[in-house]
Amino acid sequence: MAALRPTVSVIMLCYNEAVFIRRAVRSVLAQTLDAPIEIILVDDGSADGSAGIVRQEVDLAARTNIQLTIVTHEEPTGNAAAFVTGLKTARGRYYHVLDCDDYWIDPDKLTMQVNLMEAQPHLGGVAHRTIMRNQIDRTESFHPEHEPSKTILTFEEIAVEGVYFHTSAMLYRNVFYNAGLDSFDIPEIFNEVRGDTIRLYVHASQGPILYIPQSMSVYDDHGGGIWTSLDWPGKQDLLRNLYDKLQKRGYLAGMGDAQASCYLSQRLMEIAAYAPGSLRSVSLYPEQVTTQPRYRLTNISHIGSLRDLEIQIDTFVQNAQHEDGLQVLQRLLTAISYDVNLRKASQFRRIASFEVDWQCERLGTLIGQKYDVLPGAPAGDPDGPVVFLVSGVVDDAEGLWQETKDIIDLFRGQAEIKILSTELLTSSPELCAELQEDGIEVLRNNDTLQEEKAAWVMWYLAKQKACQIFVNPARNDVALMAGLRREHAARIHLLTALGYGFSLGRLSGVIDGFIARRPYDISYYAKLTPGREVIYIPSYSRGTAAQDWPDVTEQTPMVSITVCSDASKIEQNYDYRFDRAIPAVLESGVQKHIHVGDLSDAVLNRIRKELAFRGLPIECFEVHPYPEDLPAFLQSCGATIFMQTFPLPEHRPMQAALAAGLPVILHYSYMHPMLALDDMCYPGAPIWSTIQELSHILRHVDVTWMAEHRAGIKDHLSRSGSAQALLEHLGESLMTPVTGEDIPDIVVPETYHELRSLLTQMTSLTVFRR
């Protein structure tokens, strides 16, 4: 009996699903898992011939390792009873519920999940990401909408954080079937609560759930699901019943009575305050895709791999459709750049665009031939201007233009400077006027077609005869990269922004080298592109060592300050929570804490509640809007210590804090080396990873500590506090490639092939396959 036991039982719950069921069962039959699979169809009183469709599809597939069992209810019994019926029939070592309006899109899904369960016997289940398609407004989004804080989640983490995985994503260990006795022991709670959340909680109580950050299933939200078909009172009743039964059946016992009671109270309060309007689908694509017909020239849905991309571009090349080719590249990059889940994943690595860079060069050559604007022999002139080729002239939040301004400052007065902008970002007239007053010529192109932009870049750059070109493209500015040619200048270098994520041009054949702003960048490019120049130009803080900083004495109150331009960062779950860190700071000897930037009402209320609970005055915590002149604000507000508290750091607040003479306390626990800000800071700045470590640091702050750290700041600013200070510090080494022992010994995990594999994975996750 044991030898014949299936590996996976796929339980399909069916009530009049003839419209969808063929697609669902085909996705099971397409699985590559060679082990025995049993499909258990629970036909819960259907009257549309659904069961016959399933039987026909299984017979046609003729898969010897897949067996079909159909259990029929004469009358509908409901989701909970139908599931229990299917579970009482499932003899597989693992089971998976697949509703008939869902389907799987990765043929290796079951193989991957089974292998993980076999390798880790302690797991209760394995989940993955699901594509949610709203059939009403035609939007597409991912679920979970935001990545969980960990890849392996315990019951308590799932319950407290409200983590939910869709039915079509969950493979569970079948602990309810005793193969020796051929008997079943089904938890009574399955009869009491319907839906997939209860299954997740039950199995998470038996072992942790492993999450795979890949999209391997699709759910068509047509408004007829267990959740989506309910009105709001019905949804409240469903949730209340779920948490009531969890408590009564003892699933919360492991949390302890106090914590379980607090958790239940919080969840019920959330349910009471919850409104349907807070459930909004997040479209995977930018709004222009649905509002501008020009963006529908190509069907992005057909691109599910880099091979698909190559085939479609080849078709465009054969038909001389250069504009369409650039459009499909731009749309692909836009989808990758603006997707919530992929953007979060990319924050901890730099993702190069090999095939996209190559396709830009290929299409650019064809466009140059068409318009007769390709440069001839190398056009660089040793006495020519320094040209900055950028996607837009704007003081943007990502630091793209800020990086350009940094390098511009280093060349002021040393060479003629010109800026070419393809205008993918909105121009700032005031900034352009300011640059022109400094004698910098700003050339902007306002054409809308990518092909014409690329031709314009080639033509204008050929006219400049530049001695040096610095290029800083936006993540989807394919026109800029298509228009850039190696013959345009003797030296062409790519600026690497202090930001993160997907970027163009990193392996473009027209780039001679890279400007690295951090030690990690040097190691990254030295490993990824050996043979190309890597030039190190550190960031500078725009502050001077001669700042008139107020004296700090024993009577000076210790005032800490945090700055965050994006309130959503504070909402995320890290190894600490902002609302718990602030009270701990105030209990460590700090008289007042100031936060600069927006805070949601929920976070603000939690902080005030925690302060009151600990007996701390609410007025000890202040919130101020983000000011126009941050360094001036930091000097005037009375702050004495700057705390860089977020795993996703911001370099502008760091620079402002140093300019204001504030000692910096760095948070480092979640930082990838690429994101580390300690290389922008003075040596010896303390680093914390837990609230206990932060409290320990703060308790040892005194006048001597402040004096030592201020001395370190002044020394740091004397070398890199301004463009002039940096120039004097670098001397003859400016624009000299880093070689040999000067390359930092920093671990860079990605290789060329790993990054290509990553781009392939991102492509398949970001754009949907048919």
UniProtKB/TrEMBL annotation:
Its Enzyme Commission number(s) read 2.4.1.305
What name goes with this protein? UDP-Glc:alpha-D-GlcNAc-diphosphoundecaprenol beta-1,3-glucosyltransferase WfgD
- Using the record's annotation, list all stretches that form the Glycosyltransferase 2-like domain: 9-176
- Enzyme type, top EC level: transferase
Keywords, in A-Z order: Glycosyltransferase, Transferase
Q: Which GO terms describe its molecular function?
A: glycosyltransferase activity
Which SUPFAM superfamilies would you find in this protein's record?
Nucleotide-diphospho-sugar transferases
Quote the InterPro entries the UniProt record gives.
Glyco_trans_2-like, Glycosyltransf_2, Nucleotide-diphossugar_trans
| The organism of origin for this protein | Roseovarius gaetbuli
Which residue stretches, if any, does this entry annotate as coiled coil? Answer: none
Q: Name one Pfam family in it.
A: Glycos_transf_2
